[in-house]
Amino acid sequence: MNRDEEKLQEKIEANMGVDDGHADTQAYRQVFQALEKPPRYALSDAFADNVLRKVERKEQRSLRVAYAWLAAGIVLLIGACAAVVMLTEFTFEAGFLRGMADYKGLLAFGVAFVLLLHWVDKRLIHRHHPSR
Amino acid sequence: MIDERALISRILQGDRQAFRLLITQHERLVAHMVARVVKHDEEREELCQDVFMRVFEKIGDFNFQSKLSTWIATIAYRLAINHLRKQKMSFLDIPEEERFTDLFVEERNPAAILEDEDSDGMVLKLVDKLPPQYKMVLMLYHVEGMRYDEIGEITGMPEGTVKSYLFRARTLLKDKVIKYLGKEELL
């Protein structure tokens, strides 16, 4: 960098005493004055509304995609179960449920725990990632 | 005025009015940045919308290490530069040789630059011919009044590079003003 030019720029910017009879000084003054002008462009009055509409649309699209994945998962699960039943000739034996009857408290805890996890997920994870 | 932490907390809780407030507080900055490097109004509006969409998606990642405006400006800068890259705009630096700097400013028809413009308009036409990074640095410093370190954070450039870009761009513009107007006109 040219040190003299740099010093001159600094002085003009700081409004310190410089030789106004010099063409460089006058040219720099014009440059600094013009550079302070903002671009002649303003966004439309409805800009914020348009952005919010876009956000809503994107969220709805994400929700639809999530439901589509859920539906596909359910269909695949049912299909896989049906295939397993056919291939293994599985027959439903309800006897194990009688054994489970002795652990009602454990079952209730399991269900409550899963529900709690879902609640925590909604409150913490989704709060930090609103677009999800 | 609502502070940044409270505003972001409300946005993260799903408060759309809080996000609207964030947009109105920062749309001027984003519009200025985009307008300096993108020419067509429809593209500008579209790009500004994309900036705030990205802000909404990433707001949970904002860690308060910088001012919110600096963080938003960083997103605007990246998206604007990516937009220009997609349009195959060149990102030439300004080499030192005067021969090359002449290429940035049309000299064959200086009347076109001077025509119907006051001196500010003429300088801004010359600014338009500079590479996008230079235009951004000039705008952030002179219009938005940002510090070198803030501009460095936004553009990813070291502070020394920011200073050098400012110095070189202003010197180039000064030389062109003298060339077009003539020394006598200025005195």
UniProtKB/TrEMBL annotation, chain A:
Organism: Dawidia soli
Keyword annotations from UniProtKB, A to Z: Membrane, Transmembrane, Transmembrane helix
Lineage: Bacteria, Pseudomonadati, Bacteroidota, Cytophagia, Cytophagales
Protein name, as recorded: Uncharacterized protein
Transmembrane spans: 66-88, 100-120
UniProtKB/TrEMBL annotation, chain B:
Keyword Transcription regulation attributed: yes
Gene3D superfamilies, sorted: 1.10.1740.10, Winged helix-like DNA-binding domain superfamily/Winged helix DNA-binding domain (1.10.10.10)
Domain RNA polymerase sigma-70 region: 22-88
SUPFAM superfamilies listed in its UniProt record: Sigma2 domain of RNA polymerase sigma factors, Sigma3 and sigma4 domains of RNA polymerase sigma factors
Pfam families for the chain: Sigma70_r2, Sigma70_r4_2
Domain RNA polymerase sigma factor 70 region 4 type intervals: 122-172
Domain of life where this protein originates: Bacteria
GO terms for MF: DNA binding; sigma factor activity
Keywords: Sigma factor, Transcription, Transcription regulation
GO BP field: DNA-templated transcription initiation
Entry similarity comment: Belongs to the sigma-70 factor family. ECF subfamily.
Descriptive protein name: Sigma-70 family RNA polymerase sigma factor
